[in-house]
């Protein structure tokens, strides 16, 4: 549940009030814990529509769509300590089956895992960005942080990424279809 303090920081509004419905999901043979399954939740009507709020400490992403006072809450994986993104951004690009290139910092930290992909990896089912990616921008510039699918569904509910927000591929596809360029993203 989004605390009042987190919601105030995120949007100047009160927090999540109550869960109202849930759905189950699975990817491959992995069974996602029910608490991370998408569900509609009520939110304070002062939270602007077409906004995404990510509460990293709780591993939840809230998408406030077109209907004031409601959001869809998804379970997510987030950046590990020291690599997490915090603050505000907007969705500056959207890509289906995106290609991926590790950052220079990723290659420097873990060359054994990332150096072989220094020239990039084409999109597809083995690509770590998964089925869809929403690119976070600040002041018109790419932050290199993404909300994206994952090839590691067990990472949902954990803090293990290089800073990006991971979602089950089915969930990121659902979100991708409902957000537009310019959607505000607040990460607390």
Structural descriptors:
10-stranded mixed β-sheet, alpha+beta, 188 residues, 14% helix, 4 helices, two-stranded antiparallel sheet, disordered N terminus, L,D-transpeptidase catalytic domain-like
Radius of gyration: 16 Å
Overall, the morphology is globular
Report strand order across the widest sheet.
1-4-7-6-5-14-9-10-11-13
Could you describe the largest sheet, including whether it forms a barrel?
10 strands, mixed
Please work out how many helical segments DSSP would assign: 4
Q: Would you give the CATH topology?
A: L,D-transpeptidase catalytic domain-like
Q: How much of the residues is beta strand, in percent?
A: 25-35%
N-to-C span? 13 Å
Question: Which structural class do you get from the secondary structure elements?
Answer: alpha+beta
Extended strand count: 14
The CATH C-level name is: Mainly Beta
Give the total of domains.
1
* CATH architectural label: Beta Barrel
Quaternary structure annotation: single chain
Q: What is the mean predicted local confidence, pLDDT?
A: 86
Q: What sequence of helices (H) and strands (E) makes up the elements?
A: HEEEEEEEEEHHEEEEHE
**Low-confidence segments, ≥5 residues, pLDDT <50?**
3-27
**CATH homologous superfamily placement:** L,D-transpeptidase catalytic domain-like
Helix proportion range: 10-25%
């Amino acid at each position: 549940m989004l605390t009042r303090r987190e919601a105030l920081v995120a949007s100047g509004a009160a927090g999540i009030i109550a869960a109202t419905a849930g759905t189950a999901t699975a990817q491959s043979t992995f069974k996602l814990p029910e608490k991370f399954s998408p569900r509609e939740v009520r939110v304070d009507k002062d939270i602007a529509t077409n906004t995404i709020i990510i509460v990293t400490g709780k591993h939840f992403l809230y998408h406030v769509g077109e209907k004031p006072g409601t959001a869809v809450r998804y379970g997510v994986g987030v950046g590990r300590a020291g690599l997490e993104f915090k603050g505000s951004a907007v969705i500056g690009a959207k890509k289906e089956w995106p290609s991926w290139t590790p950052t220079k910092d990723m290659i420097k930290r873990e060359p054994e895992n990332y150096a072989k992909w220094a020239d990039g990896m084409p999109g597809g089912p083995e690509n770590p960005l998964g089925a869809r990616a929403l690119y976070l921008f600040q002041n018109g510039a790419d932050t290199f942080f993404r909300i994206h699918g994952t090839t590691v569904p067990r990472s949902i509910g954990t803090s293990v990424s290089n800073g990006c927000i991971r979602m089950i591929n089915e969930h990121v596809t659902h979100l991708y279809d409902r957000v537009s360029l310019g959607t505000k993203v607040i990460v607390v």
